[in-house]
Amino acid sequence: MENILQLIIFGLRIGGVYALLAIGYTMVYGIVNMINMVHGDFLMIGAFAGYFILTLGAVYMGNPIFVLMALLVACILAGLTSVAVERIAYRPLRNKPKICSLITATGVSMFIENLFRALPFIGPTPRGFPVIIESQTIRLGSVETDSNSLIMIAVAVICCIVLNYFVEHTKTGWQMRAVSMDSEAASLMGINVDRIISVTFFIGAFLAGIGGIVYTSFFPMIDVYMGSWIGTKAFIAAVAGGIGDIKGAMVGGFLLGLIEIFATSIDSRFAYMVVFMMLIVVLVFKPAGLLGKTTIEKV
């Protein structure tokens, strides 16, 4: 029983990262009906931005305000990069066939990864991420865990709750839902569709940046390709939860984390396979995803 509770904590910890990243996939798909394959790289950008800011200000690492501001700036940089990608690469293709945007997104992802790899101050060599908070051992009954795990789980859950409230109860959130339902009708009602799409990309990448910080807090190693394989799993979580549904992305992310950790505890070689097995099972028995709704497209 103790081992099971320990595995649940580990699963929720990595699942929080998948959930934060999956939300970005599902938000962009819900608004502009495209799969943003570059989204995982925003996690990498957030992690590297945090790394350089914290490294340059190493003498202030003992100041929690500096650390918090540094991480906030790193996430904002990831968000602004996403807005720039949408403006330069996606917006001119908005009225083109969706396959054009998908191919462009794949190309942008390859460009970002290889650009970072070629930059002399980044390069292909993995780097150790600075320790943000000294971890403390905590006992929850008979289960022993560390304080960082609980903090990271709490950060992921709080971000998910705040985003859900934002979408459900704020003016901008209502506008995002309106654009998701019918962008042309929303435009006729006076909603600035371009602004809402930019806001959507910013929020998604901002959360991806938070995901990168959370991930490097318990796996303190970053490299230019980390966003690619983490992003693949997060995309699976978004599809399994119900692509286009924010709550589905949250559920899918945490569920994927739990399944992956339990599979790893049995045999680490099965972990990646089980992730794709989860996707296949969900698509076979519930093609719309766990919380998604089947829609009929008229032609």
> Tell me, what's the shape?
globular
Which percent band covers the strand fraction?
Answer: under 5%
Output the structural class: mainly alpha
| SSE order | HHHHEEEHHHHEHHH
For the record, give the distance between the C-alpha atoms at the N and C termini, rounded to a whole number. 54 Å
Helix proportion range: over 70%
Specify the number of helices: 11
> Which strands sit side by side, in order, in the main sheet?
1-4
The main sheet comes to:
2 strands, antiparallel
Mean pLDDT across the residues is 86
Please provide the count of β strands: 4
List the uncertain runs. Answer: none
Quick description:
With 299 residues, the protein is mainly alpha-helical. The chain has 11 helices and 4 strands; from the N terminus they run H-H-H-H-E-E-E-H-H-H-H-E-H-H-H.
Description:
The protein has 299 residues and is mainly alpha-helical. The protein contains 11 helices and 4 strands. The protein has helices at 2-32, 39-56, 64-90, 98-118, 147-169, 171-181, 183-188, 193-218, 226-242, 246-266, 271-285, and strands spanning 127-128, 137-140, 143-146, 221-222. The model has no long low-confidence stretch (mean pLDDT 86).
